[in-house]
Write a structure and sequence with these properties.
mainly alpha, 2 helices
Amino acid sequence: MSASSGRAVLRVSGQGAVFLRALAVLMIGMAIILPLLA
């Protein structure tokens, strides 16, 4: 992600920021859980 897109994300208010944060947590969680299940 470039710095400009990072600033755009910071400008996104409320639901957008919450959605992106939840998506990041989900991705990290899957990266941790999938190797354990495999």
